[in-house]
Amino acid sequence: ALREKEAALQSLSHQRMAEDQAIEAQVLQLRAMQERARAVIKRLVNVEEASESAYTCLSCLGILKKPTICVPCGHTFCSGCVGRSRACQECDLEVRHCFHSETLDHLAGKFTYRKQVLNELLHEIEGA
Fold it and tell me: Which residue of 3, 69, 113, 123 has the fewest CB atoms within a 10 Å radius of its CB?
């Protein structure tokens, strides 16, 4: 009876070791997946940062708010940053007309949202 109990105990011990090894293998796989996800997210953040200048006001250097495009030079400023002078703040060309770009406003808003979500995701995955 004692030998049977020892054999059963040894069998349970081997089973437990096998389960522990399986768990350790899963943890290693999850860590590798986490590292790959972190690398992909960092690349996406870099892509977004590289495109940030397209959504940046040439005056305040912030993300465009109500983008206003100067004609004929095409320089873009926040509506609040467009000067009252008849010359473009960036190139000094005479500004004949300014117009609000709804499309650029929409894209700048999406850029801000994507950047925020990616940074939150990166923070979350680095904290894990």
Answer: 3
The alpha carbon of residue 98 and the mean position of all alpha carbons in its chain are separated, in whole angstroms, by 32
Residue 45 vs residues 38, 48, 112, 116, 117: alpha-carbon distances, Å: 10, 5, 12, 10, 10
DSSP classification of residue 78: E
Query: What is the spatial distance between Cα 87 and Cα 124, in angstroms, rounded to a whole number?
Result: 46
Nearest-angstrom CA–CA distance, 88 and 74: 9
pTM of the model: 0.73
Residue 105 belongs to domain with CATH number: 3.30.40.10
Angstrom distance (rounded) from CA 89 to CA 75:
9
pLDDT per residue over 46-71, tens digit each? 999 999 999 999 999 999 999 999 99
Distance CA 78, CA 58 (A): 8
Cα 52 to its chain centre, rounded Å, is 12
Query: At 97, phi and psi to the nearest 5?
Result: -160, 150
Distance CA 37, CA 121 (A): 10
